[in-house]
Design brief:
173 residues, three-stranded antiparallel β-sheet, 5 helices, 3 strands, 46% helix, 7% strand, binds zinc ion
């Protein structure tokens, strides 16, 4: 992976031949995007996560294994957290199951986020939105219920599994 424009453009290596894979994230200018110079269309981290989740589900269907299953849960958790942040910064509470988040089928056509019913168009200035996002971060309810993939029990299971696998390797199995 080579960084072309930090945060926005990357060249990804390919296997089995030469194939240029340019990953371009949307770039915008303004108060919400400090340091950005220039703008261009592009995708989002959430869309890339959706592709990674789908691919992982595919390969896990070919040869199922516990590591891939748990990795899918972590990718889903990352997607949930990013969409949860977006909802919070837009004054919403994210209400969507992981299926809806992973498919992205119900994304808002304006802001690209799941759970937005078009209210993003009625928002005031980007400066007040930025301020609301910063303030809300301190009021975040850490006891809020998250979807199953975000459940820390998954991490506990993984640490137990990792230990068992390590012991099996040591035993030469
Ligand atoms: Zn929207």
């Amino acid at each position: 992976m080579k960084v072309i424009d930090p945060g926005h453009e990357y060249l990804l290596d390919s296997l089995d031949g030469e194939l240029v894979q340019r990953l371009t994230f949307v770039k915008r200018e303004g108060e919400k995007y400090p340091g950005n110079v220039g703008s261009h269309p592009g995708t989002t981290t959430q869309e890339v996560l959706r592709a990674l989740i789908q691919r992982s589900e595919y390969v896990n269907g070919q040869i199922p294994c516990p590591e891939t299953t748990l990795a899918i849960g972590l990718l889903q958790s990352a997607l949930y957290l990013l969409e949860s942040r977006a909802a919070r910064c837009h004054g919403r509470i994210l209400v969507a199951d992981i299926g809806a988040l992973a498919s992205g089928a119900s994304k808002c056509s304006d802001c690209g986020h799941v759970g937005c019913n078009g209210s993003c168009r009625k928002e005031s200035s980007s400066a007040s939105l930025l301020e609301a996002c910063k303030l809300a971060a301190y009021e975040f309810d850490l006891t809020a219920k998250a979807p199953e993939p975000f459940n820390p029990v998954g991490f506990a299971k993984y640490s137990g599994l990792a230990k068992q696998m390590e012991e099996a390797v040591k035993r030469g199995r």
